[in-house]
Predict the 3D structure of the following.
Amino acid sequence: MGKIIAIANQKGGVGKTTTSVNLAASLGALEKKILLIDADPQANATSGLGIDVESVEAGTYQILEHTVTPQDAALECTAPNVDLIPAHIDLVAIEIELVDKENREYMLKQALASVKDQYDYIIIDCAPSLGLLTLNALTAADSVVIPIQCEYFALEGLGKLLNTIKSVQKIHNPNLDIEGLLLTMYDSRLRLSNQVVDEVQKHFNDMVFETVIQRNVKLSEAPSFGESIINYDATSKGASNYLSLAQEIIKKNSSN
């Protein structure tokens, strides 16, 4: 039975999509079978893995509408062992369209039931909001990874996200765990980066991944070539960081 991991934080620009794409690719490189779901209308995970967003005919939108199965929507992408359910700008409309539906928070969970045992991990790249799309992802997920940028406002909004996770646990998904807090965009030369790391580790202890994702030019370049960092430059610091994160997640889940 596969594990569903949502990558969530309502703050934009914290490394959600970078983490979704490169964690999926790293787990794939470690010979795990992965399904990556792009649940963000910006569709950056889709384009970042070499899929032309304009050509998408069936994706996350159709899955949430239950007009297409995940099996039919999944595409092969540039990352080995990774299937992708793509997004398109039409995903913006889903929040409005689901509002009147019964069990609207469970649409993704219901859709993924048919494929959960076909993958080792299903990774969901969430939108930068706490709307119905993200709620569907958290309701479907077994756990959530929260990327936190090593910058001044890092902890701003984290309380709100943790409260949302608590209410999802209470109302929709009692089994939802926090997989871990992931520190991203770390620059060891900056005192501020080190202060954020210390503060997050002090407040959240064991909830914080040992792996820290460092600032890396290659990580920023890879999406424009439609490739994960593993494909683009396997020797880069970014590739090494995400492989380390993938190994940490595999180890954590094999000991559970």
Observations:
- The chain has twelve helices and eight strands.
- The longest helix spans residues 237-254.
- The beta strands are 3-7, 34-39, 75-76, 82-85, 121-126, 143-149, 177-186, 208-214.
- The CA atoms of residues 56 and 88 lie 7 Å apart.
